[in-house]
# Entry
Amino acid sequence: MAHDDGAHARSLSRALAAPVRRAVNRMRNVGQAEAAPNGGPAGSAVIDCGLYVDGVRQPGNWSYAEALVAARQAGNGFVWLGLKEPDAAELADIADTFDLHELAVEDAVKSNQRPKVERYGEMTFVSLRTARYVEHAELTENSEVVESGDVMMFIGPHFIISVRHGDAARLGPVRTDLESKHELLARGPWAVAYAVYDMVVDTLIEVASAIEEDIADVEDSVFARQSSGRIQRIYQLKRELMEFKRAVLPLQRPLATVTGGQLVEVPKEIRKYFRDVNDHLTRTVEQVIYFDDLLNSILSARLAQVSVDQNNDMRKIAAWAAIAAVWTAFAGIEGMNFKYMPERDWTYGYPVILAVMIIISLALYRAFRRSGWL
# Structure
């Protein structure tokens, strides 16, 4: 009963909380959309373009070409250009302006890239997989649990270009929060890269916590007194967990590259921040591996339950078949047309035969009940 009550309470809580979370997300999205004062023209992939000098955003609306020139003249300045799902033509013009490598540009146009860090001369290309938990009142075999996306970054001495695919991770709040930390922002483009990494990993932690609740619900349904755990739900959750693993596990190597000092252009002070992000990621990786093992155990337990239920059904069928065989045997014998069958001429032959069949059947029924077959 404790399992049933816990699962019911969690389902009710999830059902009540889902509309509230969706409303909050909508309000956040609206706020984030309004927080892009320097977006490009209508139809452009440019979300925002900011010029930062000594950690302070410079006023005015800047085109990325003008901002890059001003950043180089300022010395301690850089451009943060934010893009969302740019097409090849628009990104090609940006690549000419910032002298980006063609292979990195080709990767940035396409989504579903594997997390990586690659150097092209003075420019570093970074790719991250993002994930967001999709709210649902109840997990079904068709529920979408994890929505994934991509964030790529081109990082140079005086610029950082962030390219976002999908809505799994929005960078508007990152920019707003970072602009209030002038000392951190003054350390250059890699401070922005750290903030993006930190936001992505924090979101992964939130997704892991939400998936843990789904796994607990599935576990309760499987081990409840009246088990109703459908195998399809377990497979669906495992499939969504695999999607989540694609964002979490491959991110370890790129972060290790940054924290391990293999990129000399990363300031030592910023490298300390990256190590903190790496610690958070390590804990999330351990959670994901644990979730995978736990789901495998739950699936094995459910399959064992199904096998036991099938065996129980077969035993019941066999028991009833044995009882029916008694009646079939007597009916077969009495149905023979032999000339000499003395019980046919006996006045009490029929009721006696009927009573014998009932007594044998009741005896078999009682025996099967005692052995647990019925």
Notes: Residues 306-371 form a domain with the Methane Monooxygenase Hydroxylase; Chain G, domain 1 fold (CATH 1.20.58.340). The chain is about 60% helix and 15% strand. The longest strand covers residues 123-133. The CA atoms of residues 81 and 218 lie 43 Å apart.
